[in-house]
Predict the 3D structure of the following.
Amino acid sequence: MNNKNQSSNSIRTVVATGIGAAVIFVLMKFVAIPTGIPNTQFNVAEGFLALLAALYGPVAGGLAVFIGHSLNDFVTYGSPWWTWVITDGLVGVALGLIKNRLNVTGGTVKTMKLVWFNLYQIVVNFVAWVLIAPTGDVLVYHEPAAKVYLQGVTSWIVNSVSVAIIGTILIVLYSRTRAQHGSLKKEK
Amino acid sequence: MNSQLLIGYTARDTFLNRLSGSTKLIGFVALSIIGMVTYDTRFLLGVLLISLILFHFSKIKYHEVAFVLQVIVAFAILNLVMVYVFAPSYGITIYGTHHMILGSPDHYFNLSWEQLFYEFNLLLKYIFAVPLALIFLMTTNPSEFAASLNKIGVSYRISYSVAIALRYIPDVQNDYRTISLAQQARGYEISRKAKLMTRAKGAVQIIMPLILSSLDRIEIISQAMELRRFGHNKKRTWYMAQPFKRNDYLALIIIVLIVLIGIALFKVNGGRFWNPFK
Amino acid sequence: MVEPIISFKDFGFQYDSQSEPTLKHINLDIFPGEKVLLAGPSGSGKSTLGRCINGLIPQSYPGEITGSATVAGHDIKDSSIFELSFSVGTVLQDPDSQFVGLSVKEDIAFSLENDERSQTEMRAATKKWAERLDLKPLLDHSPQGISGGQKQRVAMAGVLIDESNILLFDEPLASLDPASGKASIELIDHLARQQNLTVVIIEHRLEDVLQRPIDRLVVLKDGEIVGNDKPSAILKDSLMQQLGLREPLYLSALQLAGVKLADCDNIDSVETVAGDNIESALQRWTAGVSLQEPLLPTEPLLTLNNLNFSYNRNQPIIHGLNLTINRGDMLSLVGRNGTGKSTLSNLITGFLKLDGGEMKLNGQDLTQLSVKERADHIGYILQDPNQMISKAMIFDEVAAGLRLRGLTDDEVERRVNDTLKVCGLYEFRHWPISALSFGQKKRVTIAAILVLNPEMIILDEPTAGQDLRHYTEMMNFLETLNREHQVTIMLITHDMHLMLEYTQRAVVLADGGVLMDARPADVLTNEAVIEKAALAKTSLFTLAERYHLPSALDFVAKFVQTEREVRRHE
């Protein structure tokens, strides 16, 4: 790619980050889907993050969720819970790293790729929510380990399931809307 | 339509409004970091007191923030209860002594002054930054926010991403409302009545149009910005940036002093905890 | 000899993603200070030509260029969007995407911020342009707090601040109410003269743009220039319809009365058109047509009684509104932006909750029904089809509402197929929605609502952004639905042609209530109402007045009646 196109791409990353953050904020704030377990909800925002990161890469993915999540914490809890906000940003980065392998814009994503994507995201979410976030809470906030690790495991499950269901459906639907249609015929 | 965030900036004539956004941002970040790390009760109480005094001067009305405060209190209580349930003797471990109120340290569930004191510190940590955050949010013009981020060293591209987020949140919010109602009219559901998978699918169908139209928007806005020369130069200036004035320097000096006191207390206490039990 | 400022020589362009070139053999010179209107149906390549002028092609849209094109001395092949942006200012179609600042003043100064100008310079320049464009009182407003017309003025200020001498407008009338559209065209004209700008306007609504003089009309069709002359010369050929453009109404009326356009002078404006026999021809025609009293439906379907609604207590949007919609009505709901047209439809569909008042459908209290239950009776179709579509395939999208209501597969299939046939989509039923045009997508969203068998549908700007062919198809389709399938239709619109030619009843909203409820011809000949509701006088009315016809109202009504008869027999 030449220089000029790179500058367009960097602007697109800036805009994708901003609009992505706005969408994540709105989804976190207004779209609550009860899972049936008290106080636990589907994280629709994490599902959207998977698509956003797959489309625009690690920088946009990571920053968008970092900004969206902090803004949401600001207006709901008064102040961001930094360890979790940062962890969420790292998840965005990790999900963005597989942009080229997943290649959502190149037409319908095959089942094998989806399976592989889901294994990857479960591992990413495990590292993020079971290892990084609670460890951060213990180190920074000095909260008791048992409590934060339980919260971490819960988040891992909820977020993995959200990405597995919502993220996968979004990716499939999106890639289908981008599919090439060479051989369409009218039917009587 | 309601275009504001749930809590948001209003122009008030106070010295806090007149401080530059960068000063407030540095102050908020510096104080919340030092407060996050330290467990010195005296320090946390001191910062809380200062922030409450500032809150008073900011002329923010209680009813403007009442809802947020309720959420915060509920969140704090829930966490404190969870901490107790999972580690009722954690205070004893930290402070190394046991002054019992109920039960004995040998039982899993017991109540000690150490635990109460630890949880009190935790409570302080949950809430001390709240008045600061509210002041920051409600006295900083969102237009100035991106300029402030850029000024304290964040790249202007990232700073502008934040500006775009703030600019389009009200639009996305309105779109979401319209789209989700139009979809609900067709019968999509996310309520508890439906099965888990139905709910998840319903949610995707409801938000799908929002997501696709937002992605289209990314392309058009990128073009609009490129046509107006965004992103070509290494730097950019900001119409809304506020230069530092005397009060800003004064405020920064006070912030540095507070942070230094916090750090000095680590030395004095020989660690992050102030231990009144010894 | 003056050099052209924009020059295309045997120019062609093919997008990488397409198999055919979009532009072919374009030869076009535009000279400094010229005001050019670029018209053509959708798919004609007019927007692509615009992108070549501001450099988005080939920078953002890669593709293959043949021939040559220069803009302000730059060869577009090897100049960047950045370089061209100093010479060409672009005002995009969607004012919300162009407005990237958090407030009016920041948005006006946006390009200067990117040029690293000092705050003092930016303040001075912003002040200057805000004054010229009458934006001073709005400087601190957020984009959410101003109207579409005001946003467009902000966009203009934001590009004029660069002092570039070419201005490019991409469909500037698309999202404006008629009065704002007219103001916009006047402002463009004024600025062009004052600043000695070269102006290129891409638009398919000829009549609205021609309210102010245009130096040259360039018509594109299938990627080629098929007309390039003074507007009057092209209009005289009366080829507009064949070229896929809507002919100005007053010209259609003249032809109906038997006037030969070729014999007329100054035909590019209704204010100046002149000819020896116009007056007698119009008099003769209007005397020869007898008005039939149309049979309007009378059985009430939806009764709204003393409705009240406000977002905040101090500013009621709807205030004591009364309206009865009859079964079989095809009516248009018009009024200034922000007078509550959308609010009213949101109240009817239950998207918003009434503060007070009565709503009855067939005598049943509507306020007791949920959003979903109301949707079984009253369907609402949003302006942007992309905001309603959530499936990849057409059949699934239309079937969704029925499946969610628990119908059997056979029943779903039967009803979906029937609806698709009505909507002319049956042969596409297994296509992905993404392969459809904008107008077809809109039809899919209508089908997805019709399949639920509502007694009434509400459509928000059903023809926005569509060219004449798609517009006519859509409106004929809605007319058929209304006449043959007895669906009551309410259209929310800014399009005066649409209201005049396709609806039998016009409801004008203003000040929270119904200002006028009458035949469209009555509304569009009532100057007080036109003024108050930001509508636009139809050129037929001006024509009738200029040629001293006995009753302008009768003339307009007779014209509409005749057009409708012609349409029915086609």
